Amino acid sequence: MRFSVVLFDLDGTLVDSAAAILGSFHYATETVLQRRFPDEQILAQIGGTNLTHQMQLLDPDPDRVDELIRVYREHNDPQYSELACFAGVVDVLEQLRGEGRRLGVVTAKRKPTVVRVFAGAGIGKFFEVVVGSDDTERHKPHPEPVLKALELLGAEPHEAAYVGDSPFDVAAARAAGVFAVAVGWGGIHRVEDADAFVETPRELLGVL
């Protein structure tokens, strides 16, 4: 076993949420700002920092940011109960747990959203720890969320890998001193500059 601890990003890594996220951003900006931003601009910022900062990049006015977040979550949160894992992900999680690995989730989503995903997709049983955007002051690409997960697990960086789909995930992993694995199936980002790059969930077993 190369890594006894494996941490995962949520969106675009475990669950297929690209359409839900993009649709909710468009709904919020069109409702609040009467403006539609290019898909590429929205997708580029997904997975980094937190929702507040993402909305500030679209409009710096604090009042409009608060409204953007409210409308976004009103549209987005219910969809997270219906998201499915990417094909092959559950099988890999089962095998990793069966091998005695300790698994966790480090995500820019809030804990209540993760709970919805876990319930809907039936994957909560695999994870010992979840670090969401409401658990740390600083967010990816800062290493604090990854280091928080390791602290909760009582693990050291050299024991762990972090699996994600975005440049924010890779940067956070490297800054935390853990092995960075980028995945190619998320549909949000394309990041190959990592310690390892995999095209299918099954390939994770060969690098972890």
Q: Notable features of this structure?
A:
DNA polymerase, domain 1, 9 helices, alpha/beta, globular, Rossmann fold, six-stranded parallel β-sheet, 208 residues
Overview of this structure, please?
The mean pLDDT is 95. A 6-stranded parallel beta sheet has the order 3-2-1-4-5-6, sandwiched between helices. Helix 1 crosses helix 4. The chain is of the alpha/beta class. 42% of the residues lie in helices and 12% in strands. The chain is built from 9 helices and 6 strands; from the N terminus they run βαααααβαβαβαββα. The chain starts with a strand and ends with a helix. It has 2 domains: 138 residues, Rossmann fold; 63 residues, DNA polymerase, domain 1.
